Amino acid sequence: MDLIEIITTKPVLIGIHLGFAILAIDAFLWLLGEMSHSPWQTRRLRLAALIGVVGYAVSWLAGGYYYVKFYGSLVKPIIKAGSAPWVHNIIMETKEHIFLFIIPLAVSAALITWLREEDWQALNIRRSSLILVSLVAGLGLLIGLMGFFISAAARWGGGA
Amino acid sequence: MNKPKLIYASALSAAVTALFVTVLTIVAELNPALKDWLKNLSGHHWTSKSWLSLGLYVVSFALCYAIKHNVDARKVGMSLNLAIWSAVLGIIAILLFFTAHNFGWF
């Protein structure tokens, strides 16, 4: 079994998807803390933003591959035949589409960290910057919560 | 590189992308021909939506950066607010749409 085969197995893909999403959420929460305190520690701000963007990108790739390759044929039929088919119809359908909002928002938030603090203050975008960073972290948390519902419906939706 | 203009271009493109994903998702659910076209484009409708949204973001980013010459503080703030509101309203619209679809409200 080569490395690609190992990475593309179901539990490893889910682990990468979830693990990197948690890393990205943590990085954006870290960025929120760094951004709200003066003086800015530029290196830490940019590191947090970079980890966040890369984390979400890797999570998107791993989750997307799992969704396209395995979810439709293995997980969706179990949920649809179980006691909570609405979990697929509402939660999964919403999750898979709102995930597509994250990367552009995360890159936009990351670009703010490339400003100098005095330029950031001069632009008068403190409030909107903090809301944007909170939204990027919050969207990740919301998607994680949706993932819990989907996982629970697949495991226990049959009423066993 | 003009950093405020980069933020402006990215935030505006993020807003356009959120709007595009929201409209495409809802219209494709209501129009099987469009959903089939998305499936045929890459093998899966979601993969096509992913590529199209990423492509739109990149192209829109480059165009906004190239075309817009004067970006002041007001425009940067407005673009960030637009990105935030587009995402929030997009999430609500998609969630409400699939909820209504599930319960057969239309």
Secondary-structure map:
The complex is a heterodimer of chains A (160) and B (106).
Chain A: H1 3-7, H2 10-36, H3 42-81, H4 86-112, H5 117-123, H6 126-156
Chain B: H1 3-30, H2 32-42, H3 45-67, H4 73-103
Helix pairs in contact in B: 1-2, 1-3, 1-4, 2-3
Structure commentary:
The complex is a heterodimer of chains A (160) and B (106). Chain A is mainly α and 160 residues long. Chain A has helices at 3-7, 10-36, 42-81, 86-112, 117-123, 126-156. In chain A, 86% of the residues lie in helices and 0% in strands. In chain A, helix 2 runs antiparallel to helix 3 (42-81). The longest helix of chain A is centred in the middle third of the chain and has 40 residues, at 42-81. Chain A starts with a helix and ends with a helix. Chain B has 106 residues and is mostly helical. Chain B has four helices and no strands. In chain B, helix 1 packs across helix 2 and helix 1 (3-30) runs parallel beside helix 4. The mean pLDDT of chain B is 96. The chains are: A mainly alpha (160), B mainly alpha (106). The A-B interface holds A 60, 64, 67-68, 72, 86, 89-90, 93-94, 96-98, 100-101, 103-105, 107-108, 111-112, 114-115, 119, 122-125, 128-129, 131-132, 135, 139, 142 and B 3-4, 6-7, 10-11, 13-14, 17-18, 21-22, 25, 43-44, 46-47, 49-50, 53-54, 57, 73, 76-77, 80-81, 83-84, 87-88, 90-91, 94-95, 98-99, 101-102.
